[in-house]
Amino acid sequence: MSPMSTTLRRTGLVAALTTAGVLTAAGAAFAHVTVHPESYAKGATDGLLTFRVPNEEDTASTTKVQVFLPTDHPVLGVLVTPQAGWTAKVTTSKLKTPIKTDDGTITDAVSEITWTGGRIRHGEYQDFDVAFGQLPDDTGQLSFKTLQTYSDGNVVRWIEETPKGGAEPENPAPVLTLTAKGAGEDSSGGPSATASASDAKSSTASDKSSDSTARGLGIAGLVVGVLGLIAAGFALARGRSARS
Question: What would the mean pLDDT of 85-102 be, rounded to a whole number?
Fold first, then answer.
């Protein structure tokens, strides 16, 4: 076998493995249950959270979604947006430590939301919107453990915590990062000075489109880079062959 053929085979193998690895990683990330936007300011008010639930099974549909809200750092004023084909059940729990607000003391908060009645089929996803009155200001993140039940009885438990600086687990829980309020934000602590639930919804839709576009451009860029690597390997091998 000539040096040129050997070089090209090695270059092609590396390129194929690299491309496959990135595509697999992108697919795996998309299959996770996630919350959007990924961050809010601490203490933000009158916003919207969207839980995106993709179906990752080839032969079964998602028929039930349970999202558990933290009660150690509760989300106040939770309201569920009606979702066509789905019925939402909201469960509240007593707080260990009541929260004092301008409107009085709050002793209960939503601890679980369960959606049933609909179907998320193979190759599809469903967005579930939840409005909130106020986010906590005494923590850096909120973890929303989620159970995803399929029509064949299989239950995927999205409950694993991602260690700081460590690798993401197989079934990570959706996490909302809470950031320090920026100088350009108003006293509500929301994403902008005029933030509202409808504004957050528009922002979420834009984020979804941007995420999909960025993912596509990233993969396309990798493919172009791989092709360049193959071409470079071909030129290098040809140069060696000519010198020999």
Answer: 95
Number of neighbours of residue 232 by Cβ within 10 angstroms: 11
Reported in sequence order, the residue ranges of the chain that DSSP labels E, i.e. its strands, are 34-36, 39-41, 45-54, 62-68, 79-80, 87-101, 104-120, 125-134, 141-143, 146-150, 155-158, 175-179
Average pLDDT over every residue of 217-222: 51
Q: Whole-angstrom Cα distance, residue 135 to residue 154?
A: 33
At 57, the amino acid letter reads E
**Cβ 68 vs Cβ 158: under 8 Å:** no
In the chain, where are the structural domains located? 1-30+196-244, 33-193
In angstroms, the CA 33 to CA 145 distance is 10
93 vs 101, 109, 173, CA distance in Å?
A: 18, 6, 21
Tokens, residue 173: 């829980």
Cβ distance 174 to 37 under 8 Å?
Answer: no
Sign of CA dihedral 153, 159, 163, 165: positive
- Which CATH architecture group holds 33-193? Sandwich (2.60)
d(CA 102, CA 45): 13
- Residue 185: pLDDT above 90? no
Longest dimension (CA), the chain: 86
212 alpha carbon, distance to own chain's centre: 12
What's the pLDDT score for residue 101?
87
Length of the chain equals: 244
Q: How confident is the model at residue 58 (pLDDT cuts 50, 70, 90)?
A: very high
